[in-house]
Automatic annotation (TrEMBL), chain A:
Originating species: Winogradskyella immobilis
EC identifiers of the protein: 7.1.1.9
Membrane topology qualifier: Multi-pass membrane protein
EC category: translocase
Protein name, UniProt field: cytochrome-c oxidase
Domain annotation Cytochrome oxidase subunit II copper A binding: ranges: 163-343
UniProtKB/TrEMBL annotation, chain B:
PROSITE patterns documented for this protein: COX1, COX1_CUB
Stated family: Belongs to the heme-copper respiratory oxidase family.
Residues annotated as domain Cytochrome oxidase subunit I profile: 22-566
Keyword Transmembrane: yes
Gene3D superfamilies tied to this protein: Cytochrome c oxidase-like, subunit I domain
Localization terms from the record: Membrane
Annotated membrane topology: Multi-pass membrane protein
Key words of the record: Electron transport, Heme, Iron, Membrane, Metal-binding, Respiratory chain, Transmembrane, Transmembrane helix, Transport
TM spans (from-to): 39-61, 88-118, 139-165, 185-210, 222-250, 283-304, 316-336, 348-373, 385-407, 419-445, 457-483, 503-526
InterPro entries recorded: Cyt_c_oxase-like_su1_dom, Cyt_c_oxase-like_su1_sf, Cyt_C_Oxase_1, Cyt_c_Oxase_su1_BS
Protein name: Cbb3-type cytochrome c oxidase subunit I
Length: 353, 597
């Protein structure tokens, strides 16, 4: 109903604008019909430029006030997260300084030098010193950013095998995620989609006779051990997907026909993160919003109360239900993890005969 | 043909009199000015379709899964009881992107202004080949028609995103839109590319060969430099997309495995083996990234011209402007990998592409600062075209700066494919290029139709559009940094993102207002074609040659001799002259120097 009303309002507004424009247009035919900007137009639009500059600053400030809590630039849950957040904050500060200054100059000049009849502009075609200045300054700044960025990137992407990371396979299919733990040998059994046997519940196409596959464990909820490095090997069985774990500042595409990888070390358990004051504020705010939309949420059959959890989302368009392809991630202590793992079936035991 | 060729070859030929029928004048015209208008009108119609689609999916994002009579009326079976279907949501997103990037901002922008301005500004009687130019337009028309037809096929139009990554786009069982809809999309794009190549080759040949006497490359207006370089990038990169499209057609219809391997879908293993989707990504973005500049450079060229004319000042740093166009063009062909940092390609390649990508910020910064310096101590005539040009510089800066984050492979990890990206590229190429197109229309409308657009409606159009553009895309950065992925039909399955819902409603409101206010422009445009005030010969007191030619429809542009050129196009407010402009065809006074060399 609301959308119907909104649509009708939009329609009426459209008609009203069309009519107003027509009147507006017809009304001035008798008067000055010169369609080139006059001094009056220049003055009006010059002041509008200042107004617009204020608008840009205002929407920036408003965005920070109302949406400033949203950006994921703090409270990362992985070892490489703070470094990446730092780089993000430095880049953002830089951007805001440049943005504030250049937008000021652009709009202020547009106001200050608004045209007047009879005034002549300054014939000023070139200045090599100025050109050199605003070539060299960006060069220096960007050199810094590039170097910092590449160190961060290499640090994240180079996986140190000496750390003996826990190897886990992330397996994507339209429209859900599975995870396969490599077990005590920390080696994943061979797998290929051609080995998929739905009747035997071998849904990941794991080679049944591979010795390394015997202790593999396939699950639908990802459990990680705090402070223990993990190396994800990613596969997809059908189309491109992307394993996006925003809280860990981690993402990698899953590509049919090849294995991709991403590694990180989780540093904060789910329980600890739920105790984080920032996260508690965020969750409280979300729960307040959910209470306002109680009816809708219950209609959809969802839990009204939201509790913080790490998530793995699909972030590459993958078809109709792309918007609902997710897996819960739980970061816990070694003991909790061992207790959970003990309740899981190994791959051979999960097969049907 | 021979008769026309003769006419065009002779410099001093008088008005010529071959008979024009309605068909040769308005439909199968070989006259560049008419072809420009055809591109503009077709592009405008496609633009209306593209914008309407965006308003529909914005409403779905703001009020997910709510019945909406607009959906019911326009989407038919795709909106049972007025609730938008998830498949058609993706299709709308896909076709919106395709139409806006290719049909509006490539063909609509380059097609219109390259055609109109290249012969007129360099002093040529027409394009090098009027016939190829005509074919180019009609191929574009054909591809537009096929793209629109694809909206009506049974299983729905292409819905794999405008980047049509396989396997999603290759397998009809992966998605309804990957059946006949995708076939038509690929056919349409293949024809579109042929059209674009014919056009681009024509532009290049014309600029190189048909400049009038005295029009050296260093006296070319920056518009022509931009169109010229754009055409070169197009010729280099569009064929690669054509090959990608052809290989994808082979995979889809003839069982090859260029992009596909090891696929299990809907209970069966497919035969594909050995291909790689990453190869497609490379081929796609080898066009896809230069495409950004194919869209943007003409807009920047138009802006350079309009800012200089309306500031009554020479463009600041002409040589630096040309150099930065060339630098951007060169760099644009070696940065495509920044779309693929997390595609699974070797991280070392990611480092290389980070390096080349961030280098683009340097020529971009030079351009922005030069625009600002051009305004300094000018005598700014704030015509609607000038407002859109200043608006372009503003959105180019705002959108360009966030490129520093996205181009940095490490930072890209967490904002890749989120709304942060959507905000970035809409500001830096979408809105900027659209502003360039609007600026061009307001500025050259008198040249095209001999009449003026109403300036007050132009002001109304600009200010509402400018406010709404920031209203839509500025807050979008924040919800992107919250990790909200793009192309989600609804976010309601992620309570995590509940706190972005209000921002999404605000964004949609701005989009609706901005969208509806484009009616002001459409009204102004179509009404002024017939009833606008008659334009003077040179209403903006501009230096370039197009304002010396009569507006009256005629083949050959100038009755009598083609004007010769004696100076660059930026002698505004030059000391020693009474007027504040000196057209290019005015000979140098005794002792006068060409200062920009």
């Amino acid at each position: 109903m609301t959308t119907l009303l909104i649509f009708i309002i939009v329609l009426f507004v459209a008609i009203a604008i069309w009519q107003m424009v027509k009147i507006f247009d017809l009304a001035q035919i008798g008067g000055s019909s010169n369609q080139v900007a006059s001094d009056k137009d220049n003055t009006f639009n010059g002041y509008m430029m200042i107004g617009f500059l204020i608008f840009i600053y205002a929407i920036t400030i408003a965005s920070f006030v109302y949406l400033g809590d949203l950006p994921l630039v703090s409270n990362s849950a992985s070892a490489h997260g703070p470094g990446l957040d730092n780089l993000m904050i430095i880049s953002m500060i830089l951007i805001f300084i440049v943005q504030t200054i250049t937008q000021f100059l652009l709009h202020y000049f547009a106001f200050k030098y608004k045209g007047e009849k009879g005034r002549k502009a300054l014939f000023y075609a070139d200045n090599n010193t100025l050109e050199a200045i605003w070539t060299i300054i960006p060069v220096i700044v960007l050199a810094g950013l590039i170097i910092y960025g590449l160190f961060t990137w290499n640090d994240i992407m180079n996986i140190d095998e000496d750390e003996d990371p826990m190897v886990i396979e992330l397996y994507a299919q339209q429209f859900n995620w599975k995870a396969r733990y490599s077990g005590a040998d920390n080696v994943l059994g061979k797998a290929n989609v051609r080995l998929i046997d739905i009747d035997r519940a071998n849904i990941l196409g794991v080679a049944e006779d591979d010795i390394n596959a015997q202790d593999d464990v396939i699950v639908t909820e990802l459990h990680l051990v705090v402070d223990k490095p993990v190396l994800f090997k990613m596969r997809s069985q059908d189309v491109l997907h992307s394993a996006y774990m925003p809280h860990f500042r981690a993402q990698m595409n899953c590509v049919p026909g090849m294995v991709t990888q991403f590694g990180f070390t989780p540093t904060v358990t789910t329980a600890e993160m739920r105790q984080n004051p920032d996260i508690q504020d965020k969750v409280a705010n979300i729960n307040e919003l959910r209470l306002e939309n109680r009816e809708e949420i219950e209609e959809r059959g969802q839990d009204l109360r939201y509790e913080f959890d790490y998530l793995l989302l699909c972030n590459k368009i993958c078809g109709k239900s792309h918007f609902n392809m997710q897996m819960k991630i739980i970061v816990e202590t070694q003991e909790e993890y061992d207790a959970w793992m003990a309740t899981q079936k190994t791959f051979p035991n999960s097969l049907l005969n | 043909m021979s008769a026309t060729a003769e006419i065009h070859d002779h410099d001093d030929h008088d008005v010529h009199h071959h008979k024009e029928t309605f068909v040769t004048k308005y439909i199968f015209s070989q006259d560049h000015k008419m072809i420009a208008k055809q591109y503009l009108i077709t592009g405008t119609i496609m633009g209306v379709i593209g914008v309407l689609m965006s308003l529909m999916f914005r409403m779905q994002i703001a009020w997910p899964e709510k019945p909406n009579v607009l959906f019911e009326a326009l989407l038919g079976k795709w909106a049972p009881e007025g609730v938008m279907d998830a498949d058609i949501y993706l299709a709308l997103v896909t076709i919106h992107g395709t139409i806006m990037v290719f049909f509006v901002l490539t063909a609509g922008l380059s097609g219109t202004f390259s055609n109109l301005l290249i012969p007129l500004q360099i002093g040529a009687r027409d394009m090098a080949s009027g016939f190829l130019n005509m074919i180019s337009y009609w191929l574009f028309f054909l591809s537009s028609v096929i793209m629109v037809i694809s909206l009506f096929v049974e299983a729905g139009p292409a819905a794999a995103g405008w980047t049509i990554y396989p396997p999603l786009s290759a397998l009809p069982m992966a998605q309804g839109g990957s059946g006949m809809g995708m076939t038509l999309w690929l056919v349409s794009m293949a024809i579109f590319i042929a059209s674009s190549l014919l056009g681009s080759l024509n532009y290049i040949v014309t600029v190189i060969n048909l400049r009038t006497k005295g029009m050296s490359m260093t006296r070319l207006p920056l518009t022509i430099w931009a169109f010229f370089v754009t055409a070169i990038i197009g010729v280099i990169s569009f064929p690669v997309l054509l090959s990608a499209a052809l290989l994808l057609i082979m995979d889809r219809s003839f069982g090859t495995s260029f992009f596909l391997s090891d696929i299990f879908i809907q209970g069966e293993v497919l035969h594909y083996q050995g291909g790689s989707p990453v190869l497609f990504e490379h081929l796609f973005w080898f066009l896809g990234h230069p495409e950004v500049y194919i869209v943007l450079l003409p807009a920047l060229g138009i802006t350079s011209e309009i800012i200089a004319t309306n500031s009554r000042k020479p463009i600041f740093g002409y040589r630096a402007m040309v150099a930065s166009i060339l630098a951007i063009a060169f760099l644009s062909t070696i940065v495509w990998g920044h779309h693929m940092f997390i595609s699974g390609m070797n991280p070392f390649l990611g480092s290389v592409f980070t390096f080349t990508t961030l280098l683009i910020a340097i020529p971009s910064a030079v351009k922005a600062f030069n625009y600002i310096t051009t305004l300094w101590k000018g005598n700014l005539q704030l015509n609607p075209a000038m407002l859109f040009s200043i608006g372009l510089v503003s959105t180019f800066i705002t959108g360009g700066l966030t490129g520093i984050i996205l181009g940095d492979s490490a930072l890209d990890i967490n904002v890749h494919d989120t709304y942060f990206v959507v905000a970035h590229f809409h500001l830096v190429m979408g809105i900027s290029a659209l502003y360039g197109m609007f600026a061009g229309i307001y500025h050259w409308f008198p040249r095209m139709f001999g009449r003026m657009l109403n300036k007050n409606l132009g002001y109304l159009h600009f200010w509402v559009t400018a406010i709404c553009a920031y209203g839509v895309f500025f807050p979008m950065h924040f919800i992107g940094m919250a990790g909200l992925p793009r192309r989600y039909y609804t976010n309601s399955n992620f309570p995590l993102f509940d706190d972005t819902a209000d921002a999404n409603v605000v964004i949609t409101m701005f989009a609706l207002i901005g969208g509806v206010f484009q009616l002001v422009f459409l009204y102004n445009f179509f009404r002024s074609i017939f009833y606008g005030k008659k334009a003077e010969q040179n209403p903006w007191r501009s230096n370039t040659l197009e304002w010396t030619a009569p507006v009256k429809h005629m083949h050959g542009n100038w009755p009598g001799k083609i004007p010769h050129v004696y100076r660059w196009s930026y002698d505004y407010s030059k000391p020693g002259h009474d007027e504040d402009f000196v057209p290019q065809n005015v000979p140098m006074k005794e002792g006068e120097e060409e200062l920009h060399h």
